[in-house]
């Protein structure tokens, strides 16, 4: 049983936040980080911040009482990042959703941490600019920075790592810092921006973000191409990238994923290993790219080309891709989908996917494989029954084997989902002594281990 | 007077390194970081490492005796990064110049820290790949990572920040760590790669680097365009970027720089504010880009277009650009050129350059202004006489004013040269409380302050 929050802390926050501070079970359960293969872990209280000063006041109060703080955005993370391992106060930032500034000339903007990516892109609609990072879920930008999210467009535009210019962070000791100025590049001291991007809330609370924006491409076209086997699909993407063609998205779906997409969306894609591709550029360039990619794909046995030039068709295609995971989950009621997330050098991608598929054939549950193939990142979505110990054990074993093979290929245990609770051991296998350096940084910046404790590092 | 090195340390390193360990004055002077506005500060000894194990042995020995280590590449840094402020052992890595692996499929390579960028690009010549970061000097890649270097192609390909995938680092306590695996992206824990990139050797010694490579563009074309004023030149670049045109280089030279380039290289460019541009892509794309940029530039009064499609002409053009700084220095014998290095949001660039030029008109020494204009980064090269106290004081004052204005524009005191010794106060003005976080990291990772002490941070 978790110790109760100190009464002084509770009354202090209740006075400061009024109705925006609560200990009701329903709200705590909403903030418990349930999902995937890890159990829900509700915080002891939830505070909804609306201003930077309120974040500071929560940090100061929790620092005084050495009480954990768990920053919370949209709760869409997948490795139990917001589970309250040691109790504490969940700091919900979703109401900090102001877009503070946008500059067309500088192609950047500053937003509060609770702004979601779709909110930002709706706001930008008439500017000719957009924010490209697209992890699928409508996460908050603060959460996406905290977990170093990426997604379907990363092969072209980079992920959060490449698109965060500067952060305002509240430290565990309630100090406000800004990690960088708004210049496009800087050689001014340690790169704190990149330190906080991907720190999963363990070093401080992201209050606002300055982000790079990109010019909306003049033309886009998408394509669906299917292949005899995984290796041919991967080789097509490798060759497309090597040819310097402006590939904006390169998504792989295995035959089972296509089958589910077809059934869920009443579509009729050929059931085979398939690439969903997208190209951005000037109309003539996109036109030429289409021809080049057709040639490359055809040489690898690519067939059943379907081009979607119109926005409506492209959107339908990407909706289908984004919903493939959900379609998979829905195909087995009662299962708790568990997504693996390794990322490997692309020269090792086909062998890693194929080996995973061999494991999956023998699994006691269904599964699909999806991949951000241009980055070398793929997800096996394991549809295990959480109440069946054999299935859970098999899922765990398969995940471990997928991770072990990725590490043997000099890849990473997590391409974009983060470490959270679920990948802490794998992180040690992956980076060995470097984890000791991470631990030293954590201890230096958060000496009382109050910032999202227990995430990333097994011990602080 | 600096205390002598401990005799035990000297004899230990002499035994281990033989002739590759020296205390001779000439070699120490070669490693003193002389240049720019800061005095030379020779180390007490120099060790030439040839292997990772030798780096570890120097780190272990210096750790035992709490003796400073100054990692050294080509010595081309500009803010006294390799000056031995507190004496110690200079660890020269220039002989660690093996290219360890290149992967065409993964478009990456791993090189020892002492490999220079031109060495790498010569090696890659037949692969269809190249390493784009080009700071002008033929620096070592380890040094370029340590100072977070960038340069003329950063607008298109990014700088070291964007192109380092992973590092092998020897820590101040002589441990070997690898900051990341070779995957294109990863969400595995704190981003140590970016922490060591730009740490200027104050947190550890970079032993090898895994770098992103890029496909050599099918076609390149360069152009020289001159303008009535700075604002028109800047606006042309802003609009080109906004149009999403694939601009690979966008360099600004003021009329005085053009005049010196003309005289030094027997060229005949119109003496005016000028852009040197380069575009990469497929031939048709480059062709179309040329037409679009001509239209944009013409609307801003751009004239005297000179296109250089052939490699030979382009190389001559970029040689002229790269030598502009040296040409400036040579134009006033006895001067010690001092390059400012601010970088601002591009919407503030023209006003910052113009204000700098107003200051420079009143300066008691000649100067030129150059800029990596697509990034918002410009250099005023102050040709002050180091023996004239008035000139030195004026140069200092002008640099401070340029920095103050950049900070007022939410820019940075250093776009690409780094902090070293010269920008330590400016860093505090720029980032305030965040410098305290940097100091906490430094203390945590280098508790005895032996790694390049006194750089970046005024006190550890």
In short:
Two copies of one chain form a homodimer. Chain A is an alpha+beta fold and 460 residues long.
What does this 3D model show about the protein?
The structure is a homodimer of 460-residue chains. In chain A, 37% of the residues lie in helices and 21% in strands. Chain A has 460 residues and is an alpha+beta fold. Among the domains of chain A are: 7-92, 2-Layer Sandwich (Uridine Diphospho-n-acetylenolpyruvylglucosamine Reductase, domain 2), CATH 3.30.43; 99-215, Uridine Diphospho-n-acetylenolpyruvylglucosamine Reductase, domain 3; 217-331, 2-Layer Sandwich (Alpha-Beta Plaits), CATH 3.30.70. In chain A, the strands form four sheets. Chain A has a seven-stranded antiparallel β-sheet, sandwiched between helices. In chain A, strands 5-6-10-8-9 form a five-stranded antiparallel β-sheet. A four-stranded mixed β-sheet of chain A has the order 1-2-4-3. The radius of gyration of chain A is 22 Å and the shape is globular. The first copy, chain A, starts with 6 loop residues before the first helix and ends in a 15-residue tail after the last helix. The model of chain A has no long low-confidence stretch (mean pLDDT 94).
């Amino acid at each position: 049983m978790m110790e109760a929050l100190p009464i002084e802390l509770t009354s202090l926050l209740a006075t400061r936040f009024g109705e925006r501070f609560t200990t009701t079970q329903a709200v705590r359960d909403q903030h418990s980080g349930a999902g995937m293969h890890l159990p829900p872990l509700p915080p002891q209280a939830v505070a909804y911040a609306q201003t930077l000063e309120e974040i500071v006041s929560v940090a100061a109060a929790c620092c005084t009482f050495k009480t954990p703080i768990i920053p919370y955005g949209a709760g869409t993370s997948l490795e139990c990042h917001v589970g309250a391992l040691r109790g504490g106060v969940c700091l919900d930032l979703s109401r900090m959703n102001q877009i503070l500034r946008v500059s067309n000339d500088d192609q950047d903007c500053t937003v509060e941490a609770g702004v979601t990516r779709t909110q930002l892109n709706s706001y930008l609609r008439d500017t000719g600019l957009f924010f490209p990072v697209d992890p699928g879920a409508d996460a908050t930008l603060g959460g996406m920075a905290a977990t170093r999210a990426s997604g379907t467009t990363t092969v072209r535009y980079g992920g959060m790592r490449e698109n965060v210019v500067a952060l305002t962070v509240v430290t565990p000791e309630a100090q406000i810092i800004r990690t960088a100025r708004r210049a496009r590049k800087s050689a001014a001291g340690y790169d704190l921006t990149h330190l906080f991007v991907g720190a999963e809330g363990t070093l401080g609370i992201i209050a606002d973000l300055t982000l790079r924006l990109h010019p909306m491409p003049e033309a886009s076209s998408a394509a669906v191409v299917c292949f005899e086997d995984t290796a041919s699909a991967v080789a097509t993407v490798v060759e497309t990238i090597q040819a310097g063609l402006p590939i904006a998205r390169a998504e792989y779906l295995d035959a089972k994923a296509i089958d589910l997409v077809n059934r869920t969306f009443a579509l009729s894609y050929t059931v085979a290993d398939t690439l969903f591709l997208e190209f951005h550029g000037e109309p003539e360039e996109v036109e030429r790219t289409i021809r080049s990619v057709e040639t490359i794909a055809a040489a690898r046995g690519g067939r059943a080309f379907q081009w979607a030039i119109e926005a409506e068709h492209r959107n339908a295609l990407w909706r289908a891709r984004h919903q493939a995971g959900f379609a998979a989950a829905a195909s087995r009621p009662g299962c708790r989908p568990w997504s693996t997330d390794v990322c490997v050098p692309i020269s090792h991608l086909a062998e890693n996917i194929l080996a995973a598929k061999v494991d999956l054939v023998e699994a006691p549950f269904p599964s699909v494989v999806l991949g951000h193939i241009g980055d070398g990142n793929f997800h096996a979505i394991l549809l295990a029954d959480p109440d069946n110990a054999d299935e859970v054990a098999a899922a765990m074993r398969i995940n471990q084997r997928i991770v072990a093979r990725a590490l043997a290929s000099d890849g990473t245990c997590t391409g974009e989902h983060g470490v959270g609770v679920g990948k802490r051991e794998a992180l040690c296998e992956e980076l060995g002594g470097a984890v000791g350096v991470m631990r030293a940084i954590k201890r230096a910046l958060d000496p009382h281990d109050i910032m999202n404790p227990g995430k990333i590092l097994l011990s602080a």
